[in-house]
Amino acid sequence: MCRIFGHFGERAASASDLRRAAELQFHGGPDSCHVITRGNWSLGCNRLAIQGVNGGQQPFSIEDKIFVVFKNPLRVAPLPPSGELIRQIHSRV
User: Fold this and answer.
1) Which tens digits make up the pLDDT trace of 54-87?
2) 3-state secondary structure string across the chain
């Protein structure tokens, strides 16, 4: 299972603090580790690659403006026909 970590504050976390956070969680994601730091925030992920070993590097970036990490696998499934999803949700409430 992947492990995520980050820092948000008045100043950026040091590289050694971020490495230490990654080391403490290494058991949960020994296949890769990546960190993004911008200004006063950092976001990182230790990845356990069970599926898609050659892809899925995190944090994900969209146009180098939006960054996100996922705790669980992101699965793409076809959407049900229009309106069916709403009926399914209402039937479970």
Assistant:
1) 666 676 777 777 777 766 655 556 666 767 767 7
2) CCEEEEEECCCCCCHHHHHHHHHHCHHHCCCEEEEEEECCEEEEEEECCCCCCCCCCCCEEECCCEEECCCCCCCCCCCCCCCHHHHHHHHHC
